[in-house]
Amino acid sequence: MEDVKPTKVIDARGSYCPGPLMELIKAYKQGKVGDVISVYSSDEGTRKDAPAWIQKSGNELVGVYTRDGYYEIVMKKVK
Amino acid sequence: MSPSAKKVLILGDGAAGTMMGNKLRFHSDPSDIQITVLGNSEKHYFKPDGVSIPFGFKDYRNSVKPTRSLFNFGVNYVRETVASIDVKNSTVIASSGKSYFYDYLIIATGDRFAYEDLPGYEKAASHFYSLEASLALREKLNHFNGGKIVIGQASIPIQCPPAPYEFTFQLEQYLNLRGIRKQTELHYIYPLNRVFTIPNVAPFVEKLMDDKGIIIHKMFNVDSVEPEIRRLNSIEGETLDYDLLVLVPPHRGQKVITESGLADESGYIDVDRNRLNYADYDNVFVIGDATNLPISKAGATAHFETEYLANRLANEVNGNAFFESYGGEVACTTITSGSRAITLFFSYNKPPRVNYESKSDYFLKWTSSDTYFTGMIRGIM
Fold first, then answer.
1. Residues of chain B positioned with their CB less than 8 A from the CB of A78
2. Do B294 and A45 count as a contact with CB atoms less than 8 A apart?
3. Are the beta carbons of B294 and A16 separated by less than 8 Å?
4. Most buried of the four, B80, B107, B127, B307, by CB within 10 Å?
């Protein structure tokens, strides 16, 4: 993770799903191939939903990290 | 009108703007607060009835009132289209060229259908998010005699997140009543890994869909539509052919919001989630569908926002202490069959509890346009 610098960071802590995933999909649609998008979420559902969406959409799940009171989910836009 | 009265300017004559003006009037004295609402709608449409009108289950004429008739005495409603908003100089300029100065500004400009975000949409799809669209869909359904119907939403966010499933359940009932359910495949697409935004409600809705034989496609985010061959393609790489496509159009905030520099291209305004202020402006607020708050874009959301903000402004102007904060409260009742509905209450920090379908909730929903026009929009509840 330390080697991958996010192009965009979305701080969605404090909001319930679908807020964080909505933000992630929005960033994905507005982004370009090669962008690395990081979303911070304190929502347990997003920890599962976001990786599932990243994988189903054919993009790269860089990682899911447990931070201090929140999760960080990182994806790379490959299509 | 007292010359010392604070000028409150509200932009928008939809649910949020109208409720705001009426509620603030109830909470304040005209000698303290002068209220002006700018809007350009001749008619005010009760949007929740859109899930019933395409089937002829509701008479659309009861879902529409003249906008001007909905404002309480003491609210100055002006038919104007907002051309630009200058928060630095506390000025709003209308298309007529007239400038409006304010002490407090409340932006309730709602959102719009961004058809341009999905090329081919208007040729391919029907929807039920405006009265005109609902009536056009009613005409299409009158001539529908079986086939494959795909229902869903083109993007996130949309107004009233439960509306797509609510429409689907009523469509299923309609097809049964017409005796063409067996000749019809119903496909429900949804952008998330479930059939509804809220995780603990989704299984309940999914079971209802399974029981009714509705085919579900999760994580289907619409990428493109091909009207000529009646095909829908997803970002995730799936395709679905259809005979009738009922797709909630893409949404964005109003162009004037972006053009005035208040939001990015999405048109939704960043707002303090507990105070509803725009940026660092103590005298500028945003309510209703215009915000980018992570809660439902719905009249019920506006109801709670306006309750908070009307109380706050009335107290602030009078120099009273006001310590409450807005908690993101939402309440919504949605139809699940021909005689049942569910009601969900939730907020930023409290997910909804899963309710059971009930006839009383159905009655609540069925009479909601009356409740809305006689009570909610008037600001008396």
1. none
2. no
3. yes
4. B107
Homologous superfamily (CATH) of B6-55+64-110+254-328 is FAD/NAD(P)-binding domain (3.50.50.60)
In this prediction the ipTM stands at 0.78
Q: What kind of architecture, by CATH, is found in domain B114-250?
A: 3-Layer(bba) Sandwich (3.50)
**pLDDT per residue over A17-71, tens digit each?**
777 887 888 888 889 999 999 999 998 888 988 999 999 989 999 999 999 999 9
pLDDT tens string B51-90: 999 999 999 999 999 999 999 999 999 999 999 999 999 9
Cβ contact, residue pair B219, A25, below 8 Å? no
User: In three state form, how does the secondary structure of chain B look?
Assistant: CCCCCEEEEEECCCHHHHHHHHHHHHHCCCCCEEEEEEECCCEEECHHHHHCHHHCCCCHHHHEEEHHHHCCCCEEEEECCEEEEECCCCEEEECCCCEEECCEEEECCCEEECHHHCCCHHHHCECCCCHHHHHHHHHHHHCCCCEEEEEEECCCCCECCCHHHHHHHHHHHHHHHHCCCCCEEEEEECCCCCCCCCCCCHHHHHHHHHHCCCEEECCCCEEEEECCCCEEEECCCCEEECCEEEEECCEEECHHHHHCCCCCCCCCECECCCCCEECCCCCEEECHHHECCCCCECHHHHHHHHHHHHHHHHHHHCCCCCCCCCCCCEEEEEECCCCCEEEEEEECCECCCCCCCEHHHHHHHHCHHHHHHHHHCCCCC
Chain A residues touching B235 at Cβ < 8 A: 29, 57
